[in-house]
Amino acid sequence: MGLLFLAALATLATIGISLAWGDRAPRLLPVPELVGRTQSQVDTLLPVDARWQVRYEDARRDGTTPGEILAQEPPGGGRLAEGGTLRLTRSIGEELRRVPDLARLPVDQAVARLEAVGLTAGPQQPAYDEQVPAGTVLSAVEGGRQLPRGEPVTLVVSQGPAPRPVPDVSGQRPDQATAALQALGLVVATAPDYSNDVPTGVVVGTDPASGGEPVPKGSTVSLIVSLGPRPIPVADVVGLPAAEASDVLEAQGFVVRTEGAANRDVIASDPAAGTALQRGAVVFIITRRT
Q1: Contacts of the segment 63-69: beta carbons below 8 A, 24+ positions apart
Q2: Is 0.90 topped by the overall pTM?
Q3: N or C: which end of the chain has fewer CB within 10 A?
Protein backbone atom coordinates (compact mmCIF):
# COMPACT_ATOMS: atom_id res chain seq x y z
CA MET A 1 0.00 0.00 0.00
CA GLY A 2 2.81 2.41 0.87
CA LEU A 3 4.49 2.03 -2.48
CA LEU A 4 1.22 2.53 -4.29
CA PHE A 5 0.59 5.74 -2.30
CA LEU A 6 4.02 7.24 -3.19
CA ALA A 7 3.54 6.37 -6.82
CA ALA A 8 0.23 8.16 -6.77
CA LEU A 9 1.81 11.28 -5.28
CA ALA A 10 4.54 11.30 -7.92
CA THR A 11 1.93 11.04 -10.63
CA LEU A 12 -0.04 13.96 -9.20
CA ALA A 13 3.18 16.09 -8.97
CA THR A 14 4.00 15.38 -12.59
CA ILE A 15 0.47 16.34 -13.60
CA GLY A 16 0.82 19.65 -11.62
CA ILE A 17 4.09 20.59 -13.26
CA SER A 18 2.73 19.81 -16.67
CA LEU A 19 -0.30 22.00 -16.07
CA ALA A 20 1.87 24.92 -14.78
CA TRP A 21 4.14 24.85 -17.85
CA GLY A 22 1.52 24.22 -20.40
CA ASP A 23 2.28 20.56 -20.72
CA ARG A 24 6.06 21.17 -20.93
CA ALA A 25 8.80 21.48 -18.28
CA PRO A 26 11.21 24.50 -18.42
CA ARG A 27 14.37 23.86 -20.34
CA LEU A 28 17.62 23.79 -18.40
CA LEU A 29 20.34 25.52 -20.42
CA PRO A 30 24.10 25.33 -19.85
CA VAL A 31 25.62 28.43 -18.19
CA PRO A 32 28.82 29.70 -19.88
CA GLU A 33 31.93 30.59 -17.88
CA LEU A 34 31.80 34.37 -17.53
CA VAL A 35 34.32 35.04 -14.75
CA GLY A 36 37.25 37.02 -16.20
CA ARG A 37 35.15 38.25 -19.10
CA THR A 38 34.02 41.84 -19.49
CA GLN A 39 30.50 43.15 -19.22
CA SER A 40 30.51 43.98 -22.92
CA GLN A 41 31.17 40.30 -23.71
CA VAL A 42 28.41 38.86 -21.53
CA ASP A 43 25.50 39.29 -23.96
CA THR A 44 27.45 37.66 -26.78
CA LEU A 45 28.13 34.57 -24.67
CA LEU A 46 24.60 33.91 -23.37
CA PRO A 47 22.28 31.47 -25.19
CA VAL A 48 20.12 33.49 -27.55
CA ASP A 49 16.82 31.86 -26.53
CA ALA A 50 17.50 31.54 -22.80
CA ARG A 51 15.56 34.71 -21.91
CA TRP A 52 17.67 34.99 -18.74
CA GLN A 53 17.40 38.05 -16.50
CA VAL A 54 20.93 39.34 -15.79
CA ARG A 55 21.40 41.09 -12.45
CA TYR A 56 24.67 42.91 -11.69
CA GLU A 57 26.23 43.60 -8.30
CA ASP A 58 29.18 46.01 -8.17
CA ALA A 59 32.35 45.30 -6.17
CA ARG A 60 35.94 46.48 -5.92
CA ARG A 61 38.94 44.18 -6.03
CA ASP A 62 42.65 44.84 -6.51
CA GLY A 63 44.11 43.62 -9.78
CA THR A 64 40.85 44.02 -11.70
CA THR A 65 39.55 46.50 -14.23
CA PRO A 66 36.12 48.16 -14.36
CA GLY A 67 33.55 45.93 -16.09
CA GLU A 68 35.39 42.69 -15.39
CA ILE A 69 33.17 39.82 -14.16
CA LEU A 70 34.39 38.61 -10.76
CA ALA A 71 31.80 35.96 -9.84
CA GLN A 72 28.60 34.39 -11.15
CA GLU A 73 25.65 32.41 -9.87
CA PRO A 74 24.97 29.81 -11.20
CA PRO A 75 28.67 29.10 -11.85
CA GLY A 76 30.03 28.38 -15.31
CA GLY A 77 29.32 24.84 -16.39
CA GLY A 78 26.10 24.69 -14.39
CA ARG A 79 22.56 24.89 -15.73
CA LEU A 80 19.86 27.53 -15.46
CA ALA A 81 16.20 27.25 -16.35
CA GLU A 82 14.87 29.22 -19.27
CA GLY A 83 13.80 32.69 -18.05
CA GLY A 84 15.82 32.32 -14.85
CA THR A 85 18.03 34.95 -13.19
CA LEU A 86 21.78 35.02 -13.76
CA ARG A 87 23.60 36.99 -11.04
CA LEU A 88 26.96 38.52 -11.89
CA THR A 89 29.45 40.38 -9.70
CA ARG A 90 31.01 43.18 -11.73
CA SER A 91 34.25 45.06 -10.91
CA ILE A 92 34.14 48.82 -10.65
CA GLY A 93 37.90 49.00 -10.18
CA GLU A 94 40.47 48.34 -7.53
CA GLU A 95 39.82 48.78 -3.83
CA LEU A 96 39.83 52.36 -2.55
CA ARG A 97 42.75 53.61 -0.48
CA ARG A 98 42.21 55.96 2.44
CA VAL A 99 44.56 58.95 2.39
CA PRO A 100 46.71 58.61 5.55
CA ASP A 101 47.47 61.39 8.02
CA LEU A 102 50.55 63.13 6.62
CA ALA A 103 50.68 66.24 8.83
CA ARG A 104 54.10 67.14 10.29
CA LEU A 105 55.96 64.68 8.06
CA PRO A 106 58.89 65.77 5.86
CA VAL A 107 57.85 65.69 2.22
CA ASP A 108 59.94 62.63 1.35
CA GLN A 109 58.39 60.64 4.21
CA ALA A 110 54.89 61.72 3.20
CA VAL A 111 55.52 60.59 -0.39
CA ALA A 112 56.78 57.21 0.85
CA ARG A 113 53.70 56.75 3.03
CA LEU A 114 51.38 57.49 0.09
CA GLU A 115 53.21 55.03 -2.12
CA ALA A 116 52.97 52.39 0.61
CA VAL A 117 49.15 52.49 0.43
CA GLY A 118 49.05 52.59 -3.37
CA LEU A 119 48.61 56.33 -3.89
CA THR A 120 50.95 58.89 -5.47
CA ALA A 121 52.06 62.39 -4.54
CA GLY A 122 50.58 65.04 -6.79
CA PRO A 123 51.53 68.71 -7.09
CA GLN A 124 52.60 70.52 -3.95
CA GLN A 125 50.67 73.50 -2.65
CA PRO A 126 52.93 75.92 -0.75
CA ALA A 127 51.68 77.71 2.37
CA TYR A 128 53.31 79.86 5.05
CA ASP A 129 53.20 78.68 8.65
CA GLU A 130 54.61 80.39 11.73
CA GLN A 131 55.32 77.15 13.61
CA VAL A 132 55.95 74.34 11.10
CA PRO A 133 59.41 74.30 9.47
CA ALA A 134 59.77 74.72 5.72
CA GLY A 135 59.61 71.45 3.79
CA THR A 136 57.17 69.85 6.22
CA VAL A 137 53.68 68.70 5.18
CA LEU A 138 50.85 70.69 6.75
CA SER A 139 48.02 68.57 5.31
CA ALA A 140 46.74 66.76 2.24
CA VAL A 141 43.96 68.40 0.22
CA GLU A 142 42.27 64.98 -0.09
CA GLY A 143 42.97 64.07 3.56
CA GLY A 144 40.62 61.41 4.97
CA ARG A 145 39.08 60.57 1.60
CA GLN A 146 39.18 57.19 -0.12
CA LEU A 147 40.73 57.22 -3.58
CA PRO A 148 41.35 54.65 -6.31
CA ARG A 149 44.80 53.08 -6.54
CA GLY A 150 47.39 55.36 -8.12
CA GLU A 151 45.39 58.56 -7.64
CA PRO A 152 47.49 61.69 -6.92
CA VAL A 153 47.25 63.44 -3.56
CA THR A 154 47.99 67.17 -3.29
CA LEU A 155 50.34 67.99 -0.42
CA VAL A 156 50.12 71.33 1.36
CA VAL A 157 53.76 72.02 2.26
CA SER A 158 55.02 74.62 4.74
CA GLN A 159 57.25 77.39 3.43
CA GLY A 160 58.04 78.43 6.98
CA PRO A 161 57.00 81.81 8.42
CA ALA A 162 55.75 84.45 6.01
CA PRO A 163 58.22 87.22 5.08
CA ARG A 164 57.85 90.43 7.08
CA PRO A 165 57.46 93.89 5.53
CA VAL A 166 59.90 96.22 7.30
CA PRO A 167 57.79 98.96 8.96
CA ASP A 168 58.58 102.67 8.81
CA VAL A 169 60.05 103.53 12.23
CA SER A 170 61.75 106.78 11.24
CA GLY A 171 61.30 109.58 13.76
CA GLN A 172 60.89 107.13 16.67
CA ARG A 173 63.14 106.60 19.66
CA PRO A 174 65.42 103.57 19.28
CA ASP A 175 63.62 101.63 22.05
CA GLN A 176 60.24 102.17 20.39
CA ALA A 177 61.56 101.15 16.98
CA THR A 178 63.30 98.10 18.44
CA ALA A 179 60.10 96.90 20.11
CA ALA A 180 58.13 97.28 16.85
CA LEU A 181 60.68 95.26 14.85
CA GLN A 182 61.07 92.54 17.47
CA ALA A 183 57.29 92.10 17.59
CA LEU A 184 57.53 91.03 13.94
CA GLY A 185 60.17 88.41 14.73
CA LEU A 186 63.06 90.48 13.41
CA VAL A 187 66.51 90.90 14.96
CA VAL A 188 67.56 94.50 15.60
CA ALA A 189 71.04 96.02 15.26
CA THR A 190 72.03 99.67 15.68
CA ALA A 191 73.90 101.62 13.02
CA PRO A 192 74.63 105.23 14.11
CA ASP A 193 75.02 107.76 11.31
CA TYR A 194 75.09 111.48 10.80
CA SER A 195 72.04 113.44 9.68
CA ASN A 196 71.60 117.10 8.98
CA ASP A 197 67.83 116.81 9.34
CA VAL A 198 67.14 114.33 12.18
CA PRO A 199 67.98 115.23 15.79
CA THR A 200 70.62 113.26 17.64
CA GLY A 201 69.33 109.98 19.14
CA VAL A 202 66.30 109.73 16.82
CA VAL A 203 65.85 106.95 14.22
CA VAL A 204 66.62 108.11 10.70
CA GLY A 205 65.50 104.89 9.00
CA THR A 206 66.34 101.20 8.60
CA ASP A 207 68.49 98.93 6.50
CA PRO A 208 66.76 97.26 4.65
CA ALA A 209 64.53 100.27 4.15
CA SER A 210 60.80 100.20 4.78
CA GLY A 211 58.60 99.76 1.73
CA GLY A 212 61.02 97.35 0.05
CA GLU A 213 60.84 93.60 -0.37
CA PRO A 214 59.64 91.72 2.75
CA VAL A 215 62.40 89.92 4.66
CA PRO A 216 62.35 86.44 6.22
CA LYS A 217 61.47 86.05 9.88
CA GLY A 218 64.63 86.27 11.98
CA SER A 219 66.36 88.64 9.56
CA THR A 220 68.54 91.40 11.01
CA VAL A 221 67.31 94.94 10.48
CA SER A 222 69.69 97.79 11.30
CA LEU A 223 68.30 100.89 12.97
CA ILE A 224 70.02 103.99 11.60
CA VAL A 225 70.16 106.34 14.60
CA SER A 226 71.08 109.98 14.08
CA LEU A 227 74.34 111.37 15.47
CA GLY A 228 73.26 114.81 14.40
CA PRO A 229 75.00 116.78 11.63
CA ARG A 230 78.35 115.46 10.46
CA PRO A 231 81.24 117.53 11.93
CA ILE A 232 83.09 119.73 9.44
CA PRO A 233 86.91 119.81 9.33
CA VAL A 234 88.19 123.38 9.80
CA ALA A 235 89.72 124.60 6.56
CA ASP A 236 93.40 125.51 6.47
CA VAL A 237 93.40 129.26 6.15
CA VAL A 238 96.97 129.95 7.36
CA GLY A 239 98.65 132.43 5.01
CA LEU A 240 95.41 133.92 3.73
CA PRO A 241 94.46 137.52 4.41
CA ALA A 242 92.17 137.70 7.41
CA ALA A 243 89.16 138.84 5.35
CA GLU A 244 89.56 136.01 2.83
CA ALA A 245 90.09 133.43 5.61
CA SER A 246 86.95 134.65 7.35
CA ASP A 247 84.94 134.19 4.13
CA VAL A 248 86.21 130.60 3.72
CA LEU A 249 85.36 129.61 7.27
CA GLU A 250 81.96 131.29 7.24
CA ALA A 251 81.15 129.43 4.02
CA GLN A 252 81.73 126.22 6.02
CA GLY A 253 79.11 127.38 8.51
CA PHE A 254 81.42 128.53 11.28
CA VAL A 255 81.25 131.76 13.25
CA VAL A 256 84.58 133.54 12.80
CA ARG A 257 86.36 135.72 15.35
CA THR A 258 89.62 137.56 14.53
CA GLU A 259 92.44 138.05 16.98
CA GLY A 260 94.97 140.54 15.74
CA ALA A 261 95.06 143.07 12.93
CA ALA A 262 92.21 142.60 10.45
CA ASN A 263 94.46 143.59 7.51
CA ARG A 264 97.12 140.99 8.17
CA ASP A 265 97.59 137.41 6.99
CA VAL A 266 96.44 134.53 9.19
CA ILE A 267 99.23 132.80 11.09
CA ALA A 268 97.02 130.24 12.92
CA SER A 269 93.47 129.21 13.72
CA ASP A 270 91.86 127.97 16.90
CA PRO A 271 90.82 125.17 16.67
CA ALA A 272 93.56 124.22 14.25
CA ALA A 273 92.97 123.26 10.62
CA GLY A 274 91.48 119.75 10.26
CA THR A 275 89.64 119.83 13.58
CA ALA A 276 86.08 118.57 13.06
CA LEU A 277 83.43 120.93 14.44
CA GLN A 278 79.67 121.18 14.23
CA ARG A 279 78.21 123.84 12.03
CA GLY A 280 77.82 127.08 14.02
CA ALA A 281 80.93 126.55 16.14
CA VAL A 282 83.24 129.51 16.71
CA VAL A 283 86.66 129.51 15.00
CA PHE A 284 89.32 132.07 15.88
CA ILE A 285 91.73 133.26 13.21
CA ILE A 286 94.94 134.73 14.53
CA THR A 287 96.96 137.43 12.68
CA ARG A 288 100.00 139.44 13.52
CA ARG A 289 99.10 142.42 15.59
CA THR A 290 101.60 144.74 13.88
Answers
A1: 63/94, 64/91, 64/93, 64/94, 65/91, 65/93, 66/91, 66/92, 66/93, 67/38, 67/39, 67/40, 67/91, 68/36, 68/37, 68/38, 68/39, 69/34, 69/35, 69/36, 69/37, 69/38, 69/39, 69/42
A2: no
A3: N
